[in-house]
Design brief:
Elements lengths: L28 H4 L7 H4 L19 E2 L5 E4 L2 H24 L2 H22 L4 E2 L33 E5 L5 E3 L1 H5 L3 E9 L5 E10 H7 L8 E6 L4 E5 H4 L5 E6 L2 E2 L9 E3 L12 E7 L22
Parallel strand pairs: 2-3, 4-13
Antiparallel strand pairs: 1-2, 4-5, 6-7, 7-10, 8-9, 8-13, 10-11, 10-12
Helix pairs in contact: 3-4
Length: 310
């Protein structure tokens, strides 16, 4: 490495001989001088110096959701860590259920599912956002799968369709799609994750479920939202997830109205949940504290996890 060259001021004058180095055992004169003999300039503070001003970095303000709640992002790494933690807690119960004698097998598996629901609920954060993606990451519309449990089109009369609102609300009744679309629209590029093992990023538009429920005067302290669909599918969702800022009543995909295969005219879109919780062809929503017997969810009543969280 090349040493930094000395400046002209650092070079000794040619006309003056260089002084010999001070021996190690002999201190220079300036070090022998007592404090009383030092020039005042060396012991008195300077009065012409500017006062020190401490510069503090501005702390960024947190992003707030529609209800004033603080929002934080959940990275894919965070999501994998949460899922691993839940799996590790659940694995012993599932293992016992899988290898138990037949008489005890089903009760243990049911216990595992209930424990999974409890764990997922505890790990869910209403302030945490699922990742959103740039338009370049969105799959083409024709690559977004049509996923259905019975028929791909239940034959909804789109011209006369209304959404029936029931339960713990101040303004129950039937609402047209035009009324729903009059509320502020949110567009998001989020991932749809299917329990069958595939996932895809799509573009979705609609009204925040929290905005719609406030508009109809729903009791937001209620525990559940039940939904019923034109294809006889049904679901129930915890109110905390319904009020999540990314949960929407979806009426658009890729900037176009929902087609019949994807749930026209209205579906429930929750990036924080697995695909089977995303009910389509909605015709009734109900705010309640008590779920209808045998109506927890179409797949849940056949043994699926009720919470269905990612």
């Amino acid at each position: 490495m090349t040493d930094k060259p000395q400046s002209r001021d650092d070079q000794p004058a040619e006309s003056e001989p260089q002084e010999s180095a001070t021996p190690r055992d002999e201190a220079p004169e300036t070090q022998r001088t007592s404090d009383n003999e030092r020039p005042k300039a060396l012991i008195e503070p300077r009065t012409d110096e500017k006062p020190h001003i401490e510069v503090r970095e501005e702390v960024p303000r947190p992003r707030l959701g529609p209800a004033g709640e603080e929002i934080r992002d959940v990275t894919p790494r965070d999501r994998r860590r949460i899922n691993r933690r839940e799996l590790l807690k659940l694995a012993p119960v599932i293992a016992l259920g899988a290898f138990a004698i037949p008489k005890l097998q089903q009760p243990l598996l049911n216990t595992g599912l209930h424990f999974s629901d409890w764990t997922a609920g505890k790990l869910f954060g209403p302030r945490r956002l699922e990742p959103t993606y740039s338009n370049s990451k969105v799959a083409p519309f024709d690559k977004f799968p049509y996923n259905y449990y019975d028929v791909v089109d239940p034959g909804v009369d789109l011209a006369s369709w209304t959404l029936t609102v029931e339960g713990l609300v101040k303004r129950p009744g039937d609402y047209t799609l035009q009324q729903i679309q009059s509320l502020p629209k949110q567009v998001q590029n989020t991932r749809h994750v299917c329990v069958e093992g595939w996932d895809v990023v799509g573009n979705f538009g609609g009204v925040r479920a929290s905005d719609f429920l406030r508009w109809v005067g729903a009791d937001l302290t209620a525990r559940f939202l039940e939904v019923e669909c034109a294809d006889e599918y049904y679901e129930s969702i915890d109110m905390e997830t319904i009020l999540h800022p990314q949960t929407i009543f979806c009426y658009e995909m890729y900037g176009r109205p929902l087609d019949r295969g994807h749930g026209a005219p209205l579906g429930l879109r929750m990036p924080t949940k697995l695909g089977y919780k995303q009910a389509k062809y909605l015709n009734t929503v109900r705010v309640t504290n008590v779920l209808k017997p045998g109506m927890r969810g179409y797949w849940e009543d056949q043994g699926y996890d009720w919470y269905g969280g990612l």
